[in-house]
Amino acid sequence: MMSPSRAQKWLGIGLAAVLAWLVGYPLLITLAEALGLPAALDLGAFEEFARRPDEWLALWQSLWISVASVLLAAVIGVPLGFLFARNEFPGRRLLGSLVILPVALPPLVGVIAFLFLYGESGLLTRSVQLVLGLTSAPWRLDGPGAILLVHAYSMYVFFYLFTRAALARFDASVLEAAASLGAGRRRTMTRVTLPLLMPALVGAALLTFMTALGSFSAPYLFGGGFRVMPTQIVVSKLNGQLAMARVETVMLAGVAFFGLWLVRRLDSGGQTTAGGVRGVAPGRRRLQSPGARVAAAVAGWALALFLLLPHMTLILISFVPPVSWTTEFFPPVLNGDNYRTLLAETERLRPVFNSLWMALVATAVALGLGGLAARLTLVLKGRLGRSLELLLAIPWAIPGTVFAVALAMTFSVRAAWMGRFVLVGTVWILPLAYIVRSLPLTGRSALAGLRQFDTRLEEAAASLGAGWSYTWRRVILPLLKPALAAGASLAFITTLGDFVTSVVLYTYDTRPVSVEILSSLRLQDTGVAAVYGVFLMVVSATIFLLWGRQEDV
Amino acid sequence: MSFLRLDDIHKSFGEQVVLAGISLAVEEAQTLVLLGPSGSGKTTLLRILAGFERPERGRVEIDGRDVGGLKPARRNFGMVFQHYALFPHLTVAQNIGFGLAARGTKGPELDSRVGEMLELVELAGFEARAIHEISGGQQQRVALARALAPAPRVLLLDEPLSNLDPGLRERTRRQLRSVLRRVGITAIWVTHEQQEAFDVGDRIALLDDGRVQQLGTAEDLYARPVSPFVADFVGHSSWLRGRGDGTGRVVLAPGVSWEVSCDGDPPAGEVDILLRPEDARLVDPAAGALVGTVRQTRFVGHTTYVEVELAGGALVLVTSVHVPARETKVGVEPLGGRPSPRAFERGSGDR
Ligand SMILES: Nc1ncnc2c1ncn2[C@@H]1O[C@H](COP(=O)(O)OP(=O)(O)OP(=O)(O)O)[C@@H](O)[C@H]1O
Ligand SMILES: [Mg+2]
Question: How much is the pTM?
Answer without folding.
Answer: 0.79
